[in-house]
């Protein structure tokens, strides 16, 4: 079950996208920037066309000088917040997009692009965090990923913490039913002991605050801080 904050699109944003779309491994992909270093974004339930995520992608590319790619791993079927009853449709949507399929698409996508870039980093927001953790626990693909970030993650389980093989930054909301305090403590303990994990926490925020801030000054400020923290982390690991 997704929490209410998982399905809240946040305050309306505007942005003129700077990139283009092309097909990679049979997956429609938004691409912005041109570099031999790549950042791959695995989105929340609102998908790769959601203007908020394209705005973030363009900013990542501009400030890190990396190529940023957003695969459409929902195959043209993201959650559409413009439908009046979209919240009622969530159970069926989740059945159509199990995390096993999400991880399989992430596997296919990274396997396809890995020979084209000198370094690859990944970031996943909410639903997309599962794909990121899958990649950095994978016995073969993990070595392809230089570093990873998850922002207000969901669908993670305790067992994954001990399996993580690459450096990872967690951008955590203060209140997050999708990443409970107990789960956060478990991941933090496991990943600080082996020096793979870094954890940033943002006061006055709830799940979704980075990609879908509610427009309030406090949340906008913390969203901006988290985006900047992600940019600095990417720059250190390119």
Automatic annotation (TrEMBL):
SUPFAM superfamilies: alpha/beta-Hydrolases (SSF53474). Residues 33-236 form the Dienelactone hydrolase domain. One of its GO terms (molecular function) is hydrolase activity. Coiled coil: none annotated. InterPro entries: AB_hydrolase_fold, Dienelactn_hydro. Transmembrane segments: none annotated. PANTHER family: DIENELACTONE HYDROLASE, PROTEIN AIM2. This is Dienelactone hydrolase domain-containing protein.
